[in-house]
Amino acid sequence: MIRVFTDFDGPIMNVSERYYRVYQFCLKEIQRPNQPILPMSKAEFWQCKRGRVPEIIIGIRSGLDPSQAEAFAQLRRQTVHTLPYLVHDQPVPGAIDALEKLQQAGIDLAVMTMRRVRELDEAFSRLDLEQFFPPNRRYCLSNDYVKTGDTKDKPLLMAKALKKLPAASDVWMIGDTEADIVAAKTHGIKAIGVLSGIRDRTQLNLYEPDFIVNNLTEAVDLVLDTALLQAV
């Protein structure tokens, strides 16, 4: 049996609109009356996010002073995963077709995400994604989970999944961040980094995934092509 774990945000969901709207909201909230600010375009902002430019630096580049930038970063953390903004997430082009392709190929498919239950449920119900991931193939954080950091929390989530799930002969992890790669490497799983999410190629390369591809479609083709070669 072949198993594929996939992250949710990045491989499946495009979160750039949500992140940009939260950026705009926080900038306006922190701006003093009549203070000139320099809002980034969405492309500029997303390039910063993909390159891991710190939030405080993004705030300063946008015209805030250092103390404002700290408040901006804190407000962004409090806001970015709230339900009113999650509705702006939409599937990455081709991602749903890629999930269908995996399903039709008989691959054991599981989602592994740092979203909390309520955040994952929102997208699943809005976009009818339950069909791909039954409850016993959803690994996310509880609503009251106290995060310590994605590169620490995701390997723990992976350990939980591997303990519960039946053994598989070949296991892959598809993700868009360092946390996905670290989780895979911690447990001896092949890691595919995708460029459709919140990290660019330079950032993904730092963590040495086995492969880097553009999106979930290419990742799925890679998994299926490898399976065919192994079957020969």
TrEMBL record:
Protein's UniProt name: Putative phosphatase
Signal peptide: none
Pfam families attached to this UniProt entry: Hydrolase_like
GO biological process: DNA repair
Upper lineage: Bacteria, Bacillati, Cyanobacteriota, Cyanophyceae, Coleofasciculales
A single GO cellular-component term on record: cytosol
Organism encoding this protein: Moorena producens 3L
One of the record's GO molecular function terms: phosphoglycolate phosphatase activity
